[in-house]
Amino acid sequence: MSVLYHAVRTPVRWAFRLLTDLRVEGLHHVPSGGPFLLLPNHQSILDPLLIQSICPRKIHSMTKSTQFTQPAFRVVLAGLGAFPVRRYRVDPQTVRVLLRLLDEGQGVCVYPEGERSWDGALQPFRRGTLRVALRAGVPIIPVGISGTYDLMPRWLKRPRPGAPVSLRFGEPMCLGAIRDRSTRDRRLPEFERQLVREISRLASVPISRETRERLDAGSASPSGEGGS
Questions:
Q1: Is 228 domain-assigned?
Q2: By residue range, what is the domain housing residue 155?
Q3: Has residue 226 been placed in a domain?
Q4: Domains of the chain: total
Q5: What is the CATH number of the domain that holds 40?
Q6: pTM metric for this prediction
Q7: What is the per-residue pLDDT across 113-169, written as a single tens digit (0 to 9) for each?
Q8: Which of 12, 43, 80, 172 could be a cystine partner for 53, CB 3.0 to 4.6 Å?
Q9: What is the DSSP track for 119-186?
Q10: Spatial distance between the Cα atoms of 198 and 180, rounded to a whole number of angstroms
Q11: Rounded to whole angstroms, what are the CA distances from 210 to 18, 217, 221, 225?
């Protein structure tokens, strides 16, 4: 781990425990070595800090590119394992970085909703995220986060202590690498249904009406990747 990453993990973890009743489950599902992909729901700007402070392996998080505009902040984010993505569009450079990190045996975190939830419910997933997950051929670990929406929703500037928070790592999904795009497209609907249901279960959050309609229609969500 980088010096900065290692230095902030313990104080951030203790900050969460002081602010909230924090419960963690399923850490044994995180591989002790080799590449893996974390796919959590996204409720708060605090989610990356929570995951990185708790996960025993270093995590590289996909983060929206606008947070990298200031040079000093860009250096800090890089030290914390973040890499930029342009939201609401296919970003080939980000996909290359993500796959390179996995090829190097790293752990990578991508939020398939693409942005923080407005109401705590699970929003539709981005097709680009699902395609990369199917293409990568590494263990896919669904992650459920609950309580950070109450702790610090997207419209608050500071957390409000007291909300219980849980972080649950699910059993890895090992699907193998699907290199052919047409095959990935055929697998997308069922993969999305499985992932949505498992993350909803782990996080104990409802599935939004829009997400249910897309699942019922057997279609994936629009192209694009996302970050915090």
A1: no
A2: 3-217
A3: no
A4: 1
A5: 3.40.1130
A6: 0.88
A7: 989 999 999 999 998 899 999 999 999 999 999 999 999 988 888 888 888 999 999
A8: 12
A9: SSSBPPPPHHHHHHHHHH-S-EEEEEEESHHHHS-TT-SS--TT--EEEEE---B-------HHHHHH
A10: 25
A11: 36, 11, 10, 18
